[in-house]
C-alpha cells in the first residue's frame, strides 16, 4: 500500500516551522507496510490543494492531509476536500458543543469561522481531537482513503495514535495482528548499526526492522504483521533474537525511555545517590540528571568547573596532577570524580574533563575526553574517549557516555579500557 502526506501550512514553506508531522507519520505508517512515497508542503490555496489531491489519487491508496483545520479564513482544507470529492460537510454536534463550552469557560470570544472546526465530511468517521478543538476524520471513496489531521503536532500525534491508527489497522489493512518491539541503543554510530544489522534491516518487508536516531541515541524498531497472535509473536521473537545477537551489548532498554531515565531508575532501585564534577560539558550531565522527576531522591548537588584554580581549591585536584598531567588526563578525571563523591557524600560520582573544541587543549585534539567514575567501596577509574570535531556533539556524547558508564557500573557489568590512578593498567 502506498501513502502520500500533504501538509497545508505557509509557515513550512517560509522556514518558520519544521515539518515534524511528516517525520512522525512516516515512522508510524512504514512499519504497517504502508510505504510513504511522497510528502509535499503547500500554502493555503484551494487550487493548489485540488491539484495535489488529483496527483496523489493516481499514485496512492492513502492520502494524509495535515493542517488547515482551524477557525481562520485561510483554513481551507475541509472545504477544498469537500468540493473536490463533491461530498458535503456536516456538523458534528459533540465537537461543536465542546468548542462552545471551551470559549464560554475561558471567557474568550469565539472566532467567526469557528464552526468549521466541528465540520466533517458526510459519512466519514470522526477523529476526535483530544488535545485541541478542530475535528479530524477518515473518509474512503472508491479505492482511496483520506485522513485529515490538525497541524499542531501536540494535537496531531494523539489524534493519530489514539483515533486514526486503530482505524487504519481495522478498516484500511483489514485487521492484521501487529506486534512491535523497540530497543534503545547507545554506543554505535548509524553506519556501525547499519553494518552490524545489514542482513536484518528491511523497511518495506515483514517483519519491519528499522533504525531511528535521535541525538546520538538509537532506537531499533521491529514490527511484525500476521493473521494470528501466535504467528505475529513468533515472527517478532525470532527477529528480535537475531537483533540481540548482533548488538546485544549496546542495548540498554526495551522501551522508548532514554539513558537518563534508565540511570535514575537504577539509582532509585538501589537506594543510591549520584553527583558530578564537570568541565567541558558545563553542567549538562547535572542538568539531565536533575531534570528527571523526583531527582532529589538521587541527587543533592554537583560542581561545574572550567578553571584549574577551582579544580585545585574546590575539588582538591593536586598541583602535581595539574602541572604534570594537565586537565585532559586520567589522573585529573580520577581525582575530580573521587573528590566530588566525597565532597557531596554520594554513592557514585562522574567527572568529565577534556577538549570540547573547536580548538585543541594541552596538545589534545577536539573530542578527546576523559570520564572518571567513583563508587563508594570501589577503586576509582577513568576511561578515554575520542569523539570528533563538533563541539556540541562532543559535549552531548560525553554526557551520554557518562550515563552509559553509570548504567554499566550500577548493573555491575564490565566497562572496557578502564585506567586506574596508580597502575595505569587497562582491563
Structure, described:
The structure is a single chain. With 427 residues, this protein is α/β, with parallel strands linked by helices. The protein contains 14 helices and 18 strands. Strands 2-1-3-8-7-6 form a six-stranded mixed sheet, sandwiched between helices. A six-stranded mixed sheet has the order 14-13-15-16-17-18. The protein has a four-stranded antiparallel sheet with strand order 10-11-9-12, sandwiched between helices. A hairpin with a 2-residue loop joins strand 7 and strand 8. The mean pLDDT is 93. InterPro entries: CinA, CinA-like_C, CinA_C, CinA_KH, Competence-induced_CinA, MoaB/Mog-like_dom_sf, MoaB/Mog_dom. This is Putative competence-damage inducible protein. It comes from Candidatus Atopostipes pullistercoris.
